[in-house]
Structures are given as structure tokens and as C-alpha cells.
Prior knowledge:
The complex is a heterodimer of chains A (119) and B (110).
Chain A: E1 3-7, E2 11-12, E3 18-25, E4 35-41, E5 47-54, E6 59-61, E7 69-74, E8 79-84, E9 93-100, E10 106-109, E11 113-117
Parallel strand pairs in A: 2-11
Antiparallel strand pairs in A: 1-3, 3-8, 4-5, 4-9, 5-6, 7-8, 9-10, 9-11
Chain B: E1 4-5, E2 9-12, E3 18-24, E4 35-39, E5 46-49, E6 63-68, E7 73-78, E8 87-95, E9 98-101, E10 105-109
Parallel strand pairs in B: 2-10
Antiparallel strand pairs in B: 1-3, 3-7, 4-5, 4-8, 6-7, 8-9, 8-10
Amino acid sequence: QVQLQESGPGRVQPSQTLSLTCTVSGGSISGGGHYWTWIRQHPGKGLEWIGYRFDSGSTSYNPSLKSRTTISVDATKKQFFLRLKSVTAADTAVYFCAREGGGFHLDSWGQGILVTVAS
Amino acid sequence: NFMLTQPHSVSESPGKTVTISCTRSSGSVAANYVQWYQQRPGSAPTNLIYEDDQRPSRVPDRFSGSIDSSSNSASLTISGLKTEDEADYYCQSYDGNIRVFGGGTKLTVL
């Protein structure tokens, strides 16, 4: 059973870059045809898909966040990463990493990490 | 891009059946699989339904999914409601490489 765990700073200053890591255990991060995905949830609100990096290396991002978002992978460390540039208070949210498998569903999720954007 | 619209909240009594709808604003609901997720307070979401009507093995058969092309919508039906079903429910679908979540429905079991 694959497990995912987010890590990173819980507080980021406005205009800086939010950087998060998702560590995968119990399974491979490459060669499985999976989409390594980031999702966020603003306090008290619904889920927002941020984007993914596919096994092949291709990426796809939410059009509303595309200009500020980069998702990358380090297969040797079994980690994937989220970078979100030029953050504002509107980026304060719980950030989840997840794996999308065959069937287009997110079958494994991290527990989530709260990131607050404030000076 | 398209939107998925869900009712903000629904409520029903234990033992009853409830249905949560998810209406797609553009594009065909039948052409793009719909998934459903349950999120309990303070927890990460978990997948309940994938590919419109498929259940992961750990999900009880009280949960079922369907689509209706005439209304361009998907539905999640929960039968034999239990108090533990009280949670937020999200539908999700896609258009090419873009994934979209519905706004979520809060289910109250009272």
C-alpha cells in the first residue's frame, strides 16, 4: 500500500515561493503510469486541483495557477515537489499530495499540510 | 473550462437513502469519467467511486455512483445511512489533461 507524506514550511512570506515535498513509500514513483498530483483546500472551502506530473515527465496545471506553478519529481529519492511562486494570503491553504492511478481517480493521499502565507 | 455543480448541503435520517448530484456545465458527463470522494473533518479525502460507478474493494456497497446523460450529471447514492457517513462529498472529473472538483456537499445525518 503506497503512502504519501507532505513536508515543508508551515509559513511563507508574501511574494516568496512556496515549496513542498511529497515523499512516497511502499511503492515506486516511476514506471507505474501514475500522475503525481497536488491539491489544495482553502480554510473551510472545497478542493482545488493544482496539477500533476505524469510518469513520462509531462505536466498539467490548473489554468488559474499555471503561471506560478511547477511540479517536479526526484525518482531516486521517491519524492515529488510543488513550487508556487509569488504567493499571497490567498494561497493560504492545506496542501495535499496524491497519486492518480488508472481510472483517473486519486487512490492515495497524504495527510495534508497547512501553509500560511503571512509576514 | 467546465464546472461541476453540487448542492451545498443535504440531510437525511439514519437508515434512509440520500442522493447527491453533480452537474457538468459543459462537455459530456458521459465522455469523461466521474469520481467521488469522502472527506471527514480533519482528514484527507478518500476515493469512494471511480469511473462513474466503480467502487474500490474497501468501500461498502451502500455507496453507488451513476451518470445521467439527459441532465449531464452524475450522482452519488448512499443507502442505509449511518451517522459515520456524515462528511463532505466531492465529485471530480476531467477535460483532457485538466482535472476539476465540484464544490462539495456537506451531508448531515440526523
